[in-house]
Amino acid sequence: MATMKDVARRAGVSTATVSRVLNGHSAPTPETRARVLAAVDALEYRPNVLARSLRVHSTQTLGLVISDLLNPFFAEIARAVEDEARKHGYVVIFGNADENVEQQERYVRTLLDRRVDGLLVCPATDDDGWVSEVSARNVPLVLLDRRIDVGGAPVVYADGAAALRELAAHLVGLGHRRIGVISGPEDTSTGRERLHAFNDALRTLGHPLSPDLVTHGDFRRRSGANAASWLLGQPEPPTVLVAMDNLMGLGALEELRRLGRRIPDEVGLAIYDDQPWFPLFEPAITVVAQPTEEMGGAAVRSLLALINGEQPGEVHLDARLIVRASCGERL
Amino acid sequence: MATMKDVARRAGVSTATVSRVLNGHSAPTPETRARVLAAVDALEYRPNVLARSLRVHSTQTLGLVISDLLNPFFAEIARAVEDEARKHGYVVIFGNADENVEQQERYVRTLLDRRVDGLLVCPATDDDGWVSEVSARNVPLVLLDRRIDVGGAPVVYADGAAALRELAAHLVGLGHRRIGVISGPEDTSTGRERLHAFNDALRTLGHPLSPDLVTHGDFRRRSGANAASWLLGQPEPPTVLVAMDNLMGLGALEELRRLGRRIPDEVGLAIYDDQPWFPLFEPAITVVAQPTEEMGGAAVRSLLALINGEQPGEVHLDARLIVRASCGERL
DNA sequence: GCCGTGCGTGTATTCGATTACACGACCCGG
DNA sequence: CCGGGTCGTGTAATCGAATACACGCACGGC
């Protein structure tokens, strides 16, 4: 690979001049500029990004740590993040934490070691041990989807309260009284908040959740199936299941199919997160849809703002209810 | 951030010694070693990966260019790649080509500029303009999923011929004679090969595809829906649809639902690629499943072999038929 | 004709590591 | 008691770029 020195020699100038031409700095003469550019493409010169980064303390790289790339929700986020980053000339390195705190911590460290200019994290749990390391090296940090209490880091998330209120009204309106919930882990903000928001809404309607019909999964498919199985095995089983994440919802659906329960006649089902295939199930699944693309984009923009020394605020977008047929007759 | 010089000063040794301790080289005295290590964690020293990479000409980073992260098939690949890479101490940078040749080319260049140690590409099309650049910088390259004719680059892919033969037999056995195919683009190897393998199998059975029932999509959902719509609008419409990719299959299903056609009584459906939710549709979808996880893992191993100067062969794994209920009565 | 101004360019240092080579201490055999 | 080998450590060059600073030259004003 040709280096800058080769280009300089061929153009009969110094490396400083080459650098200036390439970076559009000060003002080399038009002729010099032309000579340099000619040498550049004669030699097919490409700058060494590592050397540059070492010198200027910036890598034009963002780090993204997500909990699970197989979760379509996070895949969409990753895709949106990559897309927005590219638009701004950044590249993204990503790591899968696998809903696992230690792996998440390892990844954060790896990405910091790679000198990313900023870090985007969808925290696996409330654990915040890794945050101190990030702030110690003062690398800009933006939290995505799940929030943890940590000073300064802006959060981008989707607020499901309104949508869950609508969902509660929808279910109650259809006559459902025993509502089974498959919630996320209690040590994640999304796990807690969705449950609380939903319960608050139901309480307001005069039909609070029965504590024995609330289960906690781990945002994975298996846990959804297990929870559904347990709920339906109760002495007074629920008439509708609400899964607080798309994978757990899938698991619940799987279990309903396995048990041969007719939806929605025997049991209804609603899922938090929409997916392209949810309308294609029989019956089409009623969901709370999150604006994933906007979330990813907004997170990147917040992060870039931080990198530029600005002080972006918390972004919160709204999730919305999409009523389909899986909880009973459409109104 | 503490640098190696700081550590050296604090430990009362030279940077060379620090480096030797950290890399387990030659043999510093146990006492020196201890002093250095003490200094390292007193200062919370972390090596600067950029400086190291610049010096040793290796970044411990792999580049992955995929066509579409929103395609669950590629998401699984990405996940498997990242997983295997991590096990070997590599990090992966990825780029979404969006089934778009130019963006793919830009990404290849970007990743090369980042000095990845090796490149994994799922080519968007047969276009191979970008390959020359890779070989010019002799960066190890492994092709994943789709093959293109290019000397030297090992290919990792799933061979669907056997599974498609079984599928053909299954369909013919169920009495299907007019079989509609939603194939991939003709300028991708997977697009061509799956169609040919399937047609060969049918021909052998004495029921070759009717050319007017073969359509080509672009591996995206919309094209699957359009193709299904077109096929069903033919004067003599097919009795079963075979979509050669999971997204086009989803599109076809969408269209079938929209038109209100009962599956499999009115039209059957089979899809290439399995997904966790395919068994949950009513009826459960018959599929050809690819071993995505193995593909991703194998690709990384081939790439690492190349990086180590070995000469890995072509890896081809087998896809397999999973008969469910969407083409008619299960045998 | 002299000197300040400004502009284009080159020289040399720096970023933070790795490593070839040299050097001094120590030990041992003749 | 001295020469040669071993072993641990330090010195300095290197990777490939960016950039502070200095230098030289042309030009203009007096």
What does this structure look like?
Two copies of one chain form a homodimer. Chain A has three domains: 4-47, Orthogonal Bundle (434 Repressor (Amino-terminal Domain)), CATH 1.10.260; 60-157 and 292-316, Response regulator (Rossmann fold); 161-289, Response regulator (Rossmann fold, 3-Layer(aba) Sandwich), CATH 3.40.50. In chain A, strands 2-1-3-4-5-11 form a six-stranded parallel beta sheet, sandwiched between helices. A six-stranded mixed beta sheet of chain A has the order 7-6-8-9-10-12, sandwiched between helices. Chain A is built from twelve helices and twelve strands. Chain A has 331 residues and is of the alpha/beta class. Chain A has helices at residues 4-11, 15-23, 30-42, 49-56, 72-87, 101-113, 129-136, 161-173, 189-204, 221-232, 246-259, 292-307; strands spanning 61-66, 91-96, 118-121, 141-144, 155-159, 179-183, 214-216, 240-243, 268-272, 286-289, 315-318, 320-322. The longest helix of chain A has 16 residues, at 72-87. Chain A starts with a helix and ends in a 9-residue tail after the last strand. The structure holds a DNA duplex (30 and 30 nucleotides).
